[in-house]
Amino acid sequence: MLACIRCGACLTSCPTYVLSMNEAEGPRGRVGLARAVAEGHLDVSPNLLEHELNCLVCDACSAVCPAGVHMDPLQVVFRSAVAEQRRAGWMARVVRSVVFGWLFMDMARFRAFARAMWLYQRSGARWLARHLGILRVLGLAEAERLLPEISRTFLTPHDETFPGEGDSTSEVAFFAGCVMSTALADVDRATIRVLQRGGYRVSDPGGQGCCGALHAHGGDLPRALDLARRNIAAFEPSEGPIVVNSAGCGAMLKDYAHHLRHDTAWSERARRFSERVRDLSQVLDPTAFSTHPVTGKSESEKIVYQDACHLLHAQRISRQPRDLLKAIPGVELVEIEEAGLCCGSAGVYNVTNPAESRQLQQRKIDNLLKVVPDLVVTANPGCLLQLQSGLAARDRHLAVKHLAEVLDEASAP
Amino acid sequence: MSIASDLRAILKDSRVLDAPAELRTYAYDASFLTQLAPRSPDAVVIAGSTSDVSAVMRYASAHGVPVTPRGAASGQAAGAVALEGGIVLALNAMNRIVEIDVANMQAFCEPGVVHATLNAALARHNLVFPPDPGSSRMATVGGMASTNAHGMRAVKYGPTSAWVLGLEVVLPDGQVIETGSVGSRAKQSSAGLELTRLIVGAEGTLGVVTRLRLKLMAIPPARAIVLGLFDVLENAGQAVQGVFGAGVSPSAMEILDERCIQAINLFRPNMKLPSVEALILFEVDGNRPGVCWDAERICEVIGPLARSTEWSDETARINALWEARSLVGAAVGTLRPGSNRAYCGEDICVPVARIPETLRAIQEISARHRIPIATYGHIGGGGLHPGHLIDGRDPDEIQRVLLVADDIHQLALSMAGTTTGEHGVGAARAPYMAQEHGPALEVMRRIKAALDPRGIMNPGVIFDVPAGLPLPLGEGGGEGFELPLRGPVGEPAVATIDPG
Questions:
Q1: What pLDDT does residue A141 have?
Q2: Quick one: DSSP state of residue A102?
Q3: Distance, CA of A113 to CA of B408 (rounded, Å)
Q4: Considering A179, A191, B324, B398, which has the largest number of Cβ atoms within 10 A of its Cβ?
Q5: Which residues of A touch B401 (CB under 8 A)?
Q6: How close is the nearest chain B Cα to the Cα of A82, in Å?
Q7: Collapsed DSSP state (helix, strand, coil) of residue B72
Q8: CB-based contact (8 Å) between B469 and chain A?
Q9: Does the CA dihedral A106-A107-A110-A111 come out positive or negative?
Q10: What number is the average pLDDT over the span B48-74?
Q11: Are A54 and B315 in contact (CB under 8 A)?
């Protein structure tokens, strides 16, 4: 907080500042507010909380800060410190406590919930709900559209080992995620296949669960740390890099060391864990396995790689996924305007701040459509669903895929 | 009725803020002064149109309410903060590029357009607005005009004022005028008093700029950069005079001292710059054979004075060196863990021939007050930016850095220089204006009074020293500061919040 010299270099990188042009909606303003509260110059007011919670925690500001301010951990701490003063309605509190305090804390429950959603989508209940207007009455239409087409079979990590292809196989441990291993389980399976073809022996340690990023950014640091400790313990018996295919989870896993640095029993274990964490794109060799075009078409495929904020800004990873895509025969990689501006997904932001989220989503889709791509690729579940739902609403048939799916297709035997 | 509710009733295209948290975020700019003593306005107007700006001014003038125009608040002189309360008039949302007149090489834009955004749009037409502050990614063109920003390329292309052909200005009584001849697209004019030049650099004390007519040029087809490393500071000074004497006109000449070089190496470890007393970046632009000739000529002239020289016309190398230079201002904070840059006494300008002497004197000031200072600047024009590193939690260091700033301002004046080369006076340099201008300051005050008889435009900057700020007392300083500071500034954060 004290490191901020108020130079303003962050302003134009911040999605909410760009939308509102209001200083209180920019990183410099938010740091200033946190500091004013910490130093006792300002009370925590609903207005202050609104400005803080409008932040997507996309970390674009941290990436450009010349003074080294790191917003994400600062906000996790600030949000936890002011959590008690949030005057949410009773309904919101109940929902929050059920979702974050109960559902995300246990993967068995989470899987049961995801299965119920799958049934909703397949049983005809969705058709009924949509056509009878129930969703609109409940104010859930927008949220429902974001619900992905849930994979039929989930991926339940249980200490299985998937053999690697080729001679020299080294070990990686796969972090399956909560949304990824259920709603997007097909992407998880594609990731494992891609890793295998990349020459890795893949383990999926049992006992792992949600990474806790949503809790941390929602101001519930204690629960986030519980989840962190569980994941650290789950991965300790495994060997090699911990590979993750969700940008948001990856950033959080890499921050475990920071969040647990004062916990004497866990700080060293957390440090060792975070050091092992790698995004999928960091462990794959572009020349190793992409052998044929993704669509089987002979002509070129125009692909936009949409940076996930938690890869580009939080983990500073932008080259590796592009190199992997460029290595696929026939791929023409095109860049869009404002590539580094968040698409508005940002964890559960599209549910908590639907208006801002939608503005960012439409801005992103405008920029995407300008270059007329054949395919959009991203590496984070939130972005994937946000772009899919945004494109669906504009009646476009442009596909959005996870990087792992594209690599899986390109390397399939 | 509050100011905010009055304004809400009369404004059509603007937003009005008055929640305490929101006001707090408009209580400071990048200056150390407002970090120590933030001043919240009574209301903020995020202006949406010239007619709303005019309405704000009519209201303010009728009620005697101070108005402070604000761009990105990236200034370092406390020039865009409501020092005497009233309204902060934020112009950053008026950020449309209205027209690019390619044939006449002019751009018409609103004041909130960010410099980098403007040049990105112009680049599509192979045009450029040449004044280039190091803060291109945040500075607005309105702010650049209001402070007459110079930046790195002023040594060849001159300050912002040289590139502003005309302005739309809302006067303190709400009247809207156009300077530089109404509707004109002429590139030069001798018609009457130069009101454009009067408003440029006036820091919002005479009126509010709501539109700018900017002169452009074609992007020079080629650039090259020469990197000179000097073991001895004085040799760097001689090198600059040698280059000018050889008939080369570089488009930028930037000096970095030893501590800045360390900061760059910390920020961009792969730069691997050697430790020397001074480094100078010379940029030349123009046609390709010309820049190669210039670059080689510079190497020839400075060769005998330098430990080593290299030149490159490769874009990647040029961009890497410029990126490092443009970030050094803030990156010097990384030199001393736990410390940050304090922007005060950060913008002096001295005669080019006295730069080495001035740099040595700054090092003495640094030693005397035990505050590390990393200095860089536009050596071609004599502008120097000393960056002081302090632990903001240490009241003693805060006190000492204020003394450093005062000493540096006095040093500049004693070297036949100025307290501000390009950032502006704001409140931070107001105490030195009498010493710097003599009776000319009174003439400035008379001009100010003629245009703003009620004194509502940005009070507390340039002409009068605002009360209650940690500024030097008495003419010429040296009599201590108006302390103690208000509020528990510098105390450690409360236990529940760990600044990480």
A1: 65
A2: I
A3: 66
A4: A191
A5: none
A6: 9
A7: coil
A8: no
A9: negative
A10: 97
A11: no
Q: Is B333 on the interface with A (CB under 8 A)?
A: yes
- Selection from B138, B426, B208 nearest residue A23 by Cα: B138
* B113 CB-side CA count, 13 A: 26
pLDDT at B100 over 50: yes
Q: Is the ipTM, as predicted for this complex, more than 0.85?
A: yes
**Residue A26 DSSP label:** S
Report yes or no: B235 at the A interface, CB cutoff 8 Å.
Answer: no
Q: What is the pTM of this model?
A: 0.88
Dmax of chain B from CA atoms? 72
Distance to chain A for B28, nearest Cα, Å? 8
Q: Which helix (H) or strand (E) holds B177?
A: strand B176-178
**Nearest-CA distance B244 → chain A (Å):** 33
Band of pLDDT at residue A86, cut at 50, 70 and 90: low
Confidence of residue B497 (pLDDT cuts 50, 70, 90): very low
* Chain A residues in contact with B135 (beta carbon < 8 A): 7-9
d(Cα B270, Cα B469) in Å, to the nearest integer?
Answer: 42
- Please, what's the largest Cα pairwise distance for chain A? 65
Cβ-defined contact of A64 to B137 (cutoff 8 Å): yes
B143 with B74: CB under 8 angstroms?
yes
Q: Which residues pair with B208 in a beta bridge?
A: B170
d(CA B339, CA B283): 32
Do A8 and B74 make contact, defined as CB atoms within 8 angstroms?
yes
How many contacts, defined by CB atoms under 8 Å, are there between A and B? Answer: 137
Task: Name residues whose C-beta falls within 8 Å of residue B444's C-beta, 6 or more positions apart in sequence.
Answer: B437, B462, B463
Give CA–CA dist A69/A63, Å, rounded: 9
Flag whether residue B121 sits within 8 Å of chain A, measured between CB atoms: no
A96 has pLDDT over 80: no
Position B90 pLDDT exceeds 80: yes
CA dist B468 → A171, B86, B370, B484 (Å): 65, 16, 26, 9
Identify which has the larger pLDDT, A120 or B253: B253
B318 — contact with chain A (CB < 8 Å)? no
Report whether pLDDT(B495) > 50.
no
Closest by Cα among B281, B262, B274 to B321: B281
Number of neighbours of residue B147 by Cβ within 10 angstroms: 29
Residue A222: is the preceding peptide bond cis (ω within 30°)? Answer: no
Per the CB < 8 Å rule, is B138 touching A29?
A: no
Which B positions 153-182 lie with beta carbon below 8 A of chain A?
none
C-alpha A306/C-alpha A384 separation (Å) is: 9
The four Cα atoms A342, A348, A351, A354 give a dihedral, to 10 degrees, of -20
B491: chain A residues, CB-CB within 8 Å = 39
The angle, 0 to 180 degrees and rounded to 10, between the axes of the packed helices A354-370 and A381-393 is 80
Q: Give the C-alpha separation, A7 to B142, whole Å.
A: 17
pLDDT digits (tens, 9 = 90+) for A215-235: 888 888 889 999 999 999 999
B24 reaches A (C-beta below 8 A): yes
- Residues composing chain B: 500
